[in-house]
Amino acid sequence: MDLHLISEIAQSGVTPEIAQEYGRKAGKAIALGIGAGLGTIGPGIGVGYIFGKVIESVTRQPEMKDEITSIQWLGFALTEAIVFYAFIFGLIAFFLG
Amino acid sequence: MRARILALCTPLALALAAPGSAFALNINEDYKPQNEFRLDPWINIEIGGIDLSINKAVFYVTVACLLTIVTMILVARKMAAGSALARPSRVQTVVEGYYGLIQNITQGNMSGAMVRRWFPFLATVFLFIWFSNMLGYLPLPTNTEHKVDIFGAQIPSFALFAATANISVPLVLTFIVVGSYHFEGIRAKGPVKYLKGWVPQGVEGPAAVPIFFIEVISHFVRIVSLSVRLFANILAGHLLILFMGGGLVILLNLSIVGSVVLGLVTGTMAVAFFIFEVGLVATLQAFIFTTLAAIYLGGAVAEEH
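^ inputs. structure came back:
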């Protein structure tokens, strides 16, 4: 985007109401994007940590593999759900805000 | 090999060759993705000011219930008739796998008498959630907003929806679970001892008061986390499939070249997400809900915290 566009907007007949409406929409889109995007960082680290630890434990004690696998999925699902908490609240802000 | 390279390069070449205007943003305001989850009443029923209309979600819940009941009755009959056979049938293998899974969940988290009491409930909850989730990935003619004209008949267009993608169904299941474990805890220990059991052993005197209030909050957070986990997973999965499988192309309203490029990329991702959702998330969420219910039920009656 260049400065030419800004002067064009300034010269066109954009009333404060229209500008406000655009600003509101932009704010909602930014809220969804940033909220959901930042929300993926923590769970991403968490899921990686779980699988890393599982690989570590299974290589150390291969006979425990079955037990570890069932706990692994429990931990994975609990961590992964946190992404969706952020996502759902982003959607609430976007569609209902 | 050459054909494969060519197929991989086509979207790239199209993207490079396309003029800048092909990717100009021109959001399609007529398309409302949130309407995909709106519940229009099919049959209006209103009793005493409470809206009891039959809609898409009611249909999905009913189908999931019927599937759960019918499969369990059929399986029980087949198992009773086939027990004399020397070789286990295929149905028996599947059912034994399912039974073993629920047995692992219950015995791992509860003691003997509790397992006998709550096994049927947890097995049913698992199967009901699993059927609701799996039904959500079958396109069924339930979208009454847009009708397709096939030989003069107005048939609702095919849509993806799941009972568990609406907060009400997971929330009710959660209330049943939370109510049951408080009830079990009070029945096993008595109300005063049960409430005292919330504070971990070793914490005494005034320090126990804030710990107790933290525990009270954590019991409310359980309601939110248990219901929202299931609901959000299924809803987000459906939204991903919806946006990747064409929704994004319609929403962005690009030119033909831009749409083809975007469609090729998102369409491929839609297939990947679909396989991920059907293969992992649907079963995993049913498993998680059942496991956590078993942990809560077991924790409420356990002697030490």
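Chain B has a mean pLDDT of 83. The beta strands of chain B are 46-47, 50-51, 140-150, 153-159.
thumbs up if we can close this ticket
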